[in-house]
């Protein structure tokens, strides 16, 4: 992926030069955001980072993927609040799956907050299935911690559920 053009948007690999902008979008989108250092560490450790930009160059969203043994772990997928609801999350999810397939891995694993129904709906529509729960995984404002729903998209089961 060196800059894939998609109508009015394009995908590029996340680089160190993107991190200030990525961290700024992260702070707008999440109550408990990753730090710039979290993104920097991910890139330094060889994880896959993807940026989605409008043709004007404005960052719309991004994702970070970590290969683990035989599957990809989607660590972070974020769409700027002003761009939500316009298909950017789906575009990033498709790219995450494309990268996973290119790496010849068996599927994608992720965690999502139960309090994030839009994300859950996106993942379910895409074919992810809930496979478990991680207790007290996320920090939370009105309670000490929030569980995470663990979801997985398995390529070996994909043919039974239809293609993406």
UniProtKB/TrEMBL annotation:
Coiled-coil regions listed in the entry: none
GO terms for MF: protein-N-terminal-alanine acetyltransferase activity
A GO-annotated cellular component: cytoplasm
Keyword tags: Acyltransferase, Cytoplasm, Transferase
SUPFAM superfamilies: Acyl-CoA N-acyltransferases (Nat)
One Pfam family cited in the UniProt record for this chain: Acetyltransf_1
Enzyme class: transferase
Catalytic activity: N-terminal L-alanyl-[ribosomal protein bS18] + acetyl-CoA = N-terminal N(alpha)-acetyl-L-alanyl-[ribosomal protein bS18] + CoA + H(+)
EC number assigned by the record: 2.3.1.266
Sequence ranges assigned to domain N-acetyltransferase in this UniProt record: 9-156
Entries under InterPro entries matching the protein: AcTrfase_RimI/Ard1, Acyl_CoA_acyltransferase, GNAT_dom, MshD_Acetyltransferase, RimI
PANTHER family recorded: [RIBOSOMAL PROTEIN BS18]-ALANINE N-ACETYLTRANSFERASE, L-AMINO ACID N-ACETYLTRANSFERASE
Entry's family note: Belongs to the acetyltransferase family. RimI subfamily.
HAMAP family: RimI
Protein name stated in the entry: [Ribosomal protein bS18]-alanine N-acetyltransferase
């Amino acid at each position: 992926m060196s800059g894939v053009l998609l109508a009015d948007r394009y995908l590029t690999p996340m680089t160190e030069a993107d991190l200030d902008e990525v961290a700024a979008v992260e702070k707008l989108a999440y109550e408990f955001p990753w730090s710039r250092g979290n993104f920097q560490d991910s890139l330094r450790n060889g994880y896959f980072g993807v940026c989605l930009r409008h043709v004007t160059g404005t960052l719309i969203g991004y994702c970070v993927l970590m290969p683990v043994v035989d599957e990809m772990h989607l660590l972070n997928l974020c769409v700027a609040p002003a761009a939500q609801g316009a298909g950017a999350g789906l575009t990033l999810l498709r790219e995450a799956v494309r990268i996973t397939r290119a790496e010849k891995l068996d599927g994608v694993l992720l965690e999502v907050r139960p309090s994030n129904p839009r994300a859950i709906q996106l993942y379910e529509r895409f074919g992810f299935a809930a496979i478990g729960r991680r207790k007290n995984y996320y920090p939370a404002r009105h309670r000490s911690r929030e569980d995470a729903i663990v979801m997985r998209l398995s390529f070996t089961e994909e043919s039974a559920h239809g293609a993406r």
